[in-house]
Predict the 3D structure of the following.
Amino acid sequence: MFATQKLFNNAYKNTMNNNTQSQYDLVIIGGGVSGAAQYFTVSKYTDIKRVLLVEKESAPGMINSAATNNSQTLHEGDIETNYTLEKARSTKYKSSFTRRYLESHTDLHGTLYLKGPKMVFGVGAKEVTELRKRFQEFKDLFPTLRAMERSELATVEPKMIAGRQEKNVLGLYNEDGLTVNYGALAGQLIVEANERWSQEQSRSGEVRFGEAVSDVVDNGDGYTLKIGDQTVRTRFLSVCAGAHSMYFAKVLNVPAVAQSSLLLIAGNFYYTPKFLNTKVYTLQDPSLPFSAVHADPDILHQADKNRYGPTTRIVMTLERGRFHTVTEYLITIVPVVDSLLAYVRILANGKFLLYAVKHNLIFTIPFLGNYLFMRTARKIVPTMRYRDITLARRQGGVRPQIVKSDQTQPLNMGEAKFTAQNAFFNVTPSPGASTALYNGLVDVRSIAKKIKARFDDQAVKQDFGTPLV
Ligand SMILES: Cc1cc2nc3c(=O)[nH]c(=O)nc-3n(C[C@H](O)[C@H](O)[C@H](O)COP(=O)(O)OP(=O)(O)OC[C@H]3O[C@@H](n4cnc5c(N)ncnc54)[C@H](O)[C@@H]3O)c2cc1C
């Protein structure tokens, strides 16, 4: 059973009953951290009257938001070397909403989140020079970030230095990191929202778990949805269904996605005994769009394990291991020829192709895969042995990376929102969990405006200590 379910065991009973209405102001599809953030925002900062959240799983946050399926990092931009200063500034601002929310729940430290150090680690002259330069550029934005030399690293994280031949190493270290169980966060947001709804007389918030939205029709002034054997109507539709958001947008022929499709990237995680207390990222290869190996504390195994990964495997399922979703994936790549040509342009980057082949084929070979991953992970812990590493079975979600077939560089990193007249479709690869609360606030503010409801900017500013821009 996932920790999320354990944590909120009884809180997930459907709030919907037989007398439930079938006309809503807002329906949210998806009870991961994105949909939960919207549901929470509606309850607290708007006067929207009738909202419904529909989640096909039996509890919130069981797909990409599950702690087993992502790296649990609150991305802020200090240890992600693929972020420019501007991207780091924007990500830090957006993630600050999640940080503020978590830090106001001190009683949930250890279950919802963990405080602890993080760093980006460079090995060899080239990487160390790059990190020193980066430190000068980023230190004002991150006042608690500092350069940690080899001698101090040997004291703080001895396993990173033991047995290491290379003398030239450097860490950019920040003691103020957060590891987050985003699935549990989704649950907490829904529980809080439901508590608020239960005290409301003139408004209603409802949640349906264990039922999928199987059909959506655009009525011009709203949407009709099929959920189980019931039909409901909504004035506004917000699709927070991960990779399925693209599927729904394609089914509805939303013009904004006409030239977009998905490249689906799954990946494995590996466990080792707990060698490290710090979340350790390594420098990203600039010619590859995915983060290099990193070592993480695991909120589900705080005392005894570290988790490494993820690897990068191209798949055709919208959700990990759900083979029936291949047909839905095929709908996301319409128009097929344009999407295939875009894939060819992406793979024309020889390094990317080699990387994809290595991760798709070699890392999946029993024993050899573990051995090769161990060699990669030795960049962080040089004395790691083959017997230290085990595959974290059935872990790792699917990152739905956006591909724009009308662009010369078709692969887009980061989250995307596609808009129709009365609908939003959120597609959320990393850092979508870190920024979910900010995205939820901004989306709901726009939705409130569209359906002529009130949005309380002042209350948001008061709760989060910063205006919502
Ligand atoms: C390997 C990996 C590592 C990552 N690491 C990080 C990280 O460290 N930090 C970070 O910020 N982000 C990370 N991410 C990204 C992060 O996991 C996602 O951005 C985030 O979980 C997205 O949340 P979501 O609610 O949008 O999607 P999800 O959590 O996937 O939720 C979508 C929900 O929609 C539901 N749904 C789909 N179709 C239907 C339907 N027809 N009817 C009803 N419900 C439906 C699904 O059941 C699901 O619960 C990582 C992702 C992966 C795969």
In short: The chain has 14 helices and 20 strands.
